[in-house]
Structures are given as C-alpha cells and as structure tokens.
C-alpha cells in the first residue's frame, strides 16, 4: 500500500492552492464545491430548511436593529426585492409601535447597477453633531478592505467633491464636519506587515492629500493605528478630546492625546503613560475610562499610589491642556469568575456589562461630587446583554437581551433612573421554551482546570443519548455566550438534537487569565479543554458512537480540526460523527503570509523563529494529518470564501486536498464572495445554514424527515 504524500514543514505539495489569481486554483475550488453541492443540496431537507430559514429572516416581525441619532433610528435592511440592501430610517417615536414608516436613504442595489459593482455595506459612520452627514464604507466583495465615501442622507446622494478614499483596510473617522482622522492603507508603503495602516493623518476638507498633516508614522512591525474623537459630558457641559491608539500587537497598545489646533497650526501627539495592556473605553467628566488587561501600579503627579488588579475598570483624570494623567479611581474590580465584557459612557453615567459565570450582569455609575458613584439600573441578568446604541447628550440607552430559550427584545432605559426599561420590539419565538432545558456543566481538563459548557436539549431527552452538536471557538479573548437559538431551535433541537457550547480557554469568559492560558505554545490546552468536554458528555451517557459533531469557525476552525485529529488517537473516546470547519486557520507555518495572518503573531507565535516553529508545527492541523490507514477521521465539511481577505481561503483548500490525498472523508465549499463574515444576502445565508444542517443530519443519523 502506497502512503500518500502529506504536507510537512519542509515540503508543501499544495502551496499552489494559495494563489487566488491562478485559473487552475479557481477550477479546483469550483470542482470541489460542485461535488459538495451535488451531495448536500439534492437532499430534500436542504430545500425545506433553506426556505424556512429564509422565511424567518424575511419575517417583518424581525427586530430592525440600528442606531439612534436625534429623532431617527437608522437601520440596514435586506429583502427579496433588494438583496444587497437599503439604508433607511424611521422616527424613534414610532419604532416601538411596530408599524413605523421607513424612509429609504441609500439603495445598494440601485448603486450597484449604476456603478457595475455589487457593493456591500460594511459600515456607516454618522457625524454625530450633524447625523445626516456620514461616511459610507463599501466593500466590493464582502472582504475587510473598503472604499470610503461621504454621503448626505438628507439629499440621498454622495457629497459633491466630498471626502472619498480608495480601497484598503483604512481606518477613517470624523474629527469635525470639515476634517477627518485618516489612517490610510491603500498603498503598500502605508501598510504594516499585517496590511493595516501605520500612519495617522489629519485631513481637512478641500486639501490635496499632499498637503494633509502627517501626525504619526510608525514602524511596519506594529499592527495598526487608529484615531477618533470622544464627545462627552464635562464639568461645564459638552467636552471633546482626540486620541490615537497604536496597536503594537493584538494584546498591547500605546495611546496618544491629540491637542486641539487651528487650521494653520501643527500639533504634536502627546504619549499617555498608560500600561501596554490597557484599553481606553470611554471619556467622561474629564476622566479616561480604562479597562486593564494586566495589573497596574500607578502613582499620580501628587504622589498618590494605586494598585489595580487585572480586569479592573479605572477612571483616570486627563489634563486636556497638557495631556497629563492625574488622580485615579477604581470603578470595578472583577472576581475570578467575572470579566468585563463592555463599557459604555452616556451623558452622565457609565454602564459596565460584566460576565459572571458566563452570564451577563449590568452595573452602572453616575458622576457626582467629583467622583463616580454606583447607581441603580433596570437591566436584566442571566443571558446576553448587548448595547444597541447610546445617543448623544442623553442617559438613555437602547439594548437587547436574549438567552438560549428567550428570543431577543430591544429595550430603552435611562441609566441612573428608577423607572423600568421599556420593551420596544420583540423577536418572534422559534421554539416553545417550556419544551426545552438549559444547564451549565463543568468538565475537568488535563491539567485539572474546570471548564464550563452549556447544554441545551429537549426536556424529553432527559440526558439520553442523542445527536449532539458541540460548538467551540477558544481564542482571541472572545467569549461564547448563551445566544438565542433562532435557527438551530427548529432545525436542530426540535428534530431531536442536543446543542452544546464550550467555554474553553483562549476565550474571554473569565478575562485575561482565561485567554492568556491558551496563548502561543500553550494553545494545546484549548484542545485539552474540548477533549475533556467530549469525555464528560460521554461519561454522562449522552452519546453513542458517531453521535457527536464538532463545529467551529475562523480560529474555532483550527480548534475543531486539531481536536478531531487528537480525538482519533484516543481509544477512550467514542468516534466522532462529523466536523464542520468554517473559514478556518489551519496552516500555522504559513499563516503570517496569508490574508491578515501577520496580525496574529501575538496569539499563535512566529513560525519564522526556529524555537517557535517546532511547537507551531505540532499544533498545525494541516501538518498533522494522518493517513486513513493509521487514524480514521470523521467526515469533515470545510467552508471558505474566495473574497476572504482576513483568513485566506488557501487554508481550507490545502487542508481539503491533503485530507483527500490521505484517504480521509472531506467535503469542501468555497463561496465566490462574502468575505470572512460570510455571505450577506439573506438567501445565501439561508442556503449556507441549510447545507450545514443537511451534512450534520446525514452524518449523525438524524432522520431526514425531522
């Protein structure tokens, strides 16, 4: 028997599949995708699931999330008639009535027809003090790179001779109506090695680019630079400051205060002596609101010393005449089971969303007598809290709440007030919560660490063996939270499936310590955590052979692929039934050369350094493939997108080719557009979900008629 030629650190037979421009690569991807399409889309369940999901997404009762500016709520919507979408608005006073009259401000389908480009709307940045003026970020294929153009929402037109910038991963924000902070990335000499901007430019209306003011030029080894203006409440009313943030890598930052200046003045950025693992979250009442990812010992100019633990939120006074930090006040210090998820500054208050045992809890403070004091808030606890928007010059916030069995609803409330929140919109329910149960369980990892996971199942299952889908991510400090199962409810739980969400190390469920435990050479512990959860599910009697599937995307694609490989070598674990690996990072020896991979060196490590290349090779799914004669893997569905400029499609292509060469069962799907976030059209999203459901049902033995 001939052993197939598998990739090794010194030899990559599928390197050619990284070349997006090669017609042979395009043909290979199209052929592999067509085979997957034939196998999955001809199943009768595909059309039924796809149609049902599409109907749900187009249901007019779905919540139109948006941002409030003045008397209007602005929202991006897609429909069968307008698949690329429209940007529209309604009056806030009508939003909660459910029958508001929408005004169309921008029609992407009309724009695409006029310009011959299928533009996708990547972002809208309103100028807060005059919100009908905005900057539109438009992506030609759904990738991260965008063109940016100034648009007048009142006139429903691009501004004549307005701001306009070429395609790139630039960061552009309003300074005032006639000037912008521009961090350009449309030319190679402007870019960091990761493809983002390394320069900060003050650009005024009517200037030529050559006459703009370069504020900072940084080494190409930094990750990126960005700048923005904070509008906030001060002791004498409205206040504003400008800050620049230099991301040294994924986990370290440096901040600069940008003084006010007249048009003919030059200004010098002032470095702020904050610790490198600190994030400026807000500015209010003369204080920078800072979240600390590591402990900080600080002495203010008056000689007062402070000791803050990792994860704390701190208010630090900023002298806006000289850019000097002053006295500090502790706002919040987390327990070992807590992590700050979000910080929002309103006109008079601060709101913190804190994860407590992986469930959201809200805390708020009001500024009074020169300091921040705790105040009540009416926000719920136990599920997922997300701030939809916080309008200018008010303490009113708009937020959504949901959990595994509670559909999302949008509320308005006033921070610091005793009045209850007002429910404005409620998502239609996709399942009856009385029929299901949720529990949080804990598994013990290889090093003794207790790792939590959520289990959602029909009450009738009562812990019996059932097809089980286990979702995991475990990286970049991103927590996995108990979101409502709008599509999985009717199409996975209702037919008899169980759903499990893993909270493995590498995520942000318990703050920096949970994330840092799985960085770089310690990344194996994420796999150990997931294997421990698999073993725990099995020990509870909830699984039979080939009833468990793993699913993960992006970094989670790495996690489930490497876990699949190690699980195949574990005689004590039941064989897996399937793996869904979406937009994955799989080649840890080539990743810095692909897409935005150079920006992840602090997370994974640097394969250019020999002492790191060894353990990266041991963690790299692409380089750890075993032939089927040695270890049989479960069927794996690999998905990617041709326009993904964040995680290069070469990762998934090469993995699919190498698995097939090794005799392992693999399906491959490459979307021609959509970027790393997936395809944006409602029909495409519905089809993508249905394809995964058909694959999982087939492999885990769930009835096709379910």
Give an overview of the whole structure.
This protein has 706 residues and is α+β, with helices and mostly antiparallel strands. The chain is 18% helix and 35% strand. The protein contains 12 helices and 39 strands. The strands form 9 sheets. An 8-stranded mixed beta sheet has the order 32-33-35-34-36-37-38-39, with helices on both faces. Strands 5, 6, 7, 8 and 9 form a 5-stranded antiparallel beta sheet that branches. Strands 1-2-3-4 form a 4-stranded antiparallel beta sheet. Strand 22 and strand 23 form a beta hairpin. Helix 2 (44-57) crosses helix 12 and helix 7 (524-539) crosses helix 8. It is globular and about 70 Å long.
Tell me the total number of β-strands.
39
Overall pLDDT confidence: 94
Strand order of the largest sheet: 32-33-35-34-36-37-38-39
Q: How many helices does DSSP assign?
A: 12
Indicate the structural class: alpha+beta
Contiguous uncertain segments of 5+ residues: none
The radius of gyration over CA amounts to 26 Å
Distance between the termini: 42 Å
Strand content: 25-35%
Biggest sheet, open or closed, and with what strands and sense?
8 strands, mixed
Describe the global form: globular
Roughly how much helix do the residues carry, as a percent range? 10-25%
């Amino acid at each position: 028997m001939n052993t197939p030629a598998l990739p090794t650190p010194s030899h990559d037979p599928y390197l050619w599949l990284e070349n997006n421009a090669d017609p042979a690569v395009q043909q290979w991807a199209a052929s592999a995708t067509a085979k997957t399409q034939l196998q999955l889309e001809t199943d009768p369940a595909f059309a039924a699931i796809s149609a049902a999901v599409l109907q749900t997404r187009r249901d007019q009762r779905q919540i139109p999330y948006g941002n409030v500016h003045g008397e209007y709520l602005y929202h991006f919507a897609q429909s069968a008639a307008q698949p690329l979408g429209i940007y529209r608005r309604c009056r806030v006073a009508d939003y909660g009535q459910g029958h508001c009259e929408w005004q169309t401000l921008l029609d992407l389908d009309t724009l695409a027809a006029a310009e011959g480009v299928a533009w996708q709307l990547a972002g809208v940045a309103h100028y807060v003090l005059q919100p009908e003026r905005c900057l539109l970020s438009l992506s030609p294929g759904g990738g991260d790179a965008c063109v940016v153009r100034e648009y007048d929402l009142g006139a429903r037109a691009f501004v004549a001779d307005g701001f306009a910038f070429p395609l790139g991963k630039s960061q552009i924000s309003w300074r005032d109506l006639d000037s912008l902070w521009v961090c350009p990335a449309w030319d190679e000499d402007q870019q960091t090695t990761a493809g983002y901007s390394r320069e900060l430019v003050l650009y005024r209306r009517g200037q030529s680019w050559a006459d703009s003011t370069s504020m900072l030029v940084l080494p190409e080894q930094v990750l990126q630079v960005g700048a923005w203006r904070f509008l906030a409440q001060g002791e004498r009313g409205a206040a504003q400051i400008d800050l620049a943030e230099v991301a040294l890598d994924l986990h370290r930052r440096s901040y600069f205060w940008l003084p006010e200046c007249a048009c003919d003045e030059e200004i010098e950025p002032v470095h702020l002596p904050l610790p490198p693992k600190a994030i400026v979250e807000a500015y209010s009442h003369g204080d920078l609101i800072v979240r600390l990812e590591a402990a900080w010992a600080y002495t203010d100019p008056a000689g007062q010393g402070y000791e803050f633990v990792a994860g704390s939120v701190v208010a630090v006074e900023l002298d806006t005449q000289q850019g000097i930090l002053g006295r500090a006040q502790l706002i919040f210090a987390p327990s070992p089971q807590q992590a700050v998820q979000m910080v929002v500054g309103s006109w008079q208050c601060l709101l913190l969303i804190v994860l407590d045992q992986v469930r959201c809890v809200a805390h708020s403070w009001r500024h009074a007598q020169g300091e921040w004091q705790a105040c009540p808030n009416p926000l719920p606890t136990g599920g997922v809290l997300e701030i939809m928007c916080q309008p200018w010059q008010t303490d009113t916030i708009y937020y959504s709440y949901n959990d595994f069995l509670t559909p999302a609803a949008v509320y308005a409330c006033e921070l610091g007030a005793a009045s209850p929140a007002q429910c404005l919109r409620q998502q239609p329910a996709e399942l009856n919560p009385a029929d299901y149960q949720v529990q949080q369980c804990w598994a013990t990892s290889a090093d003794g660490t207790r790792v939590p996971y959520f289990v959602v199942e029909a009450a009738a299952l009562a812990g019996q063996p059932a097809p089980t889908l286990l979702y995991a991510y475990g990286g970049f400090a991103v927590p996995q939270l108990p979101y409502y199962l709008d599509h999985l409810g009717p199409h996975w739980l209702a037919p008899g499936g169980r759903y499990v969400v893993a909270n493995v190390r590498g995520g942000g469920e318990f703050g920096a310590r949970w994330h840092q435990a799985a960085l770089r050479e310690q990344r194996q512990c994420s796999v150990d955590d997931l294997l421990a959860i698999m073993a725990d599910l099995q020990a509870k009697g909830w699984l039979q052979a080939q009833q468990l599937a793993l699913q993960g995307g992006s970094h989670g694609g790495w996690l489930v692929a490497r876990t699949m490989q190690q699980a195949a070598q574990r005689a004590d674990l039941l064989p897996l039934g399937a793996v869904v690996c979406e937009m994955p990072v799989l080649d840890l020896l080539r990743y810095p050369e692909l897409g935005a991979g150079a920006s992840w060196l602090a997370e994974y490590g640097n394969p250019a350094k020999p002492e790191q290349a060894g353990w990266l090779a041991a963690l790299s799914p692409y380089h750890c493939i075993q032939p089927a004669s040695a270890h049989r893997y479960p069927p794996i569905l690999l998905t990617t997108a041709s326009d993904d400029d964040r995680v290069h499609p070469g990762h998934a292509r090469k993995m699919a080719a190498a698995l097939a060469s090794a005799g392992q069962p693999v399906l491959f799907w490459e979307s021609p557009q959509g970027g790393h976030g997936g395809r944006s059209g409602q029909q495409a999203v519905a089809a993508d979900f249905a394809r995964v459901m058909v694959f999982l049902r087939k492999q885990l033995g769930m009835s096709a008629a379910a």
